[in-house]
Request: fold
Amino acid sequence: MDKIVVKGGNSLSGELEVSSAKNSYLPILAGAILCSGEVILHKYPKYDDVLNMIGILENLGGKSKVQGSSLILDMTCLNGFEIPSNLASLTRSSIFSLGSILGRFKYAKVAYPGGCEIGARPIDLHIKGLEALNVKVIDRRGYLTCDGRNMRGGDVHLDFPSVGATENVMMAGVLTKGRTRIFNAAKEPEIVDLQNFLNKAGAKIRGAGTTTIVIDGVEKLGSVEYTPISDRIITGTYIIATSMCGGDVTLTNTRPDHLQALISKLDNSCCKIKVKGDRIRVISSGRHKSINKIETMPYPGFPTDLQPQIMALEAISNGTSVIVENLFETRFKHVSELVKMGAQILTEGRSAVIKGVEKLYGAEVAATDLRGGAGLVLAGLVADGYTVVSNIGQIKRGYESIETDLKKLGADIRKVEFL
Ligand code: EPZ
Reply:
């Protein structure tokens, strides 16, 4: 079983290129199901969640190969519309495929999705959205069996700006006759990326990035070549890591405009951030005043996917801070692991109060989920002594190799195989 071992105390310096956005690649791979032709995606990131999604496409009859840093998919001859539980349970993004399978085949049978255990992760908004397009959904025995033979465009009002439900309905509308409008849509950059990918393949979508998205159904999507955006959460993770460790790091292939909530929190308080084109330079002394309050919100608010990482930063700040997790009801599982390292954190419901300490201590901790695991690695970078992080398969779902990246920036970190 592999674990990450990190010895705290090093500052970070150097330059690192950020890889493609996991939460763009996953819905775009689902969108590839709508394309009857070749789909070429550049800057292919080898996150385990992406590999799982490719497995789902191959199970539907798609063919994939890697050429250099590009992923080549042949989606001409899909011959299935089912996603079995053993594949669907590997990733949250399997549920996004429902809309695209329905769009192409007008019928789908998809098992409940997997994903990080950070809350109940219901799928009621996905189902409600598809039913608004006249899909008949039978939700039984852990499978959604959907009959879309009478699908037509319609208006979908999302109770909550759900990222996945927005993407699912968008994709369901692409090959469906008539106009589909999504109100109270999520506005994440990855949704704009999905719109741009689908429009390049021949879809007619507008409004992604705003609260109202309009999709006019077309007959067919053809071949497409596309380069998804870079990962704003990985970028944010390494900005926070540099703020914690101290140093001078430049991240390239970034989208600073996607990180305004984080940058506005950290710049001139925890570090100095200089932006130039797709480069973000972070200069930090390593010690900083605490940030009074951080509330996670749908984009463009502070991203929930950076909550564990900024909690690690606040754990060693001068002062007390409060983090409110508004998106997921149990996204504090990393707190008990940080407390093992000497952090002083109290949680009550969706709020966590963090009293900064002078020093954290290396300990044996376990990654509770993808971003919780990343937060523990960051805590290990500043802890006294050695931290051993287990269950690192969680981290590999969204980082190709967090230990390789951080080692390149000067951290004393490595992956060790424990027999
Ligand atoms: C996406 O998950 C991301 N995953 C998550 O990233 C991210 O944390 C989340 O959006 C919020 O930004 C991918 O894109 C693959 P939601 P998703 O639907 O679509 C409730 C990571 O670490 N809800 O926007 O599942 C839900 O319970 C992962 O990369 C319903 O009530 O998130 C939550 O409280 C973790 N009913 C809120 O909406 C539904 O049908 C936001 O969830 C769907 C969601």
The CA atoms of residues 141 and 191 lie 30 Å apart. The chain has 14 helices and 24 strands. Residues 22-226 form a domain with the UDP-n-acetylglucosamine1-carboxyvinyl-transferase; Chain fold (CATH 3.65.10.10).
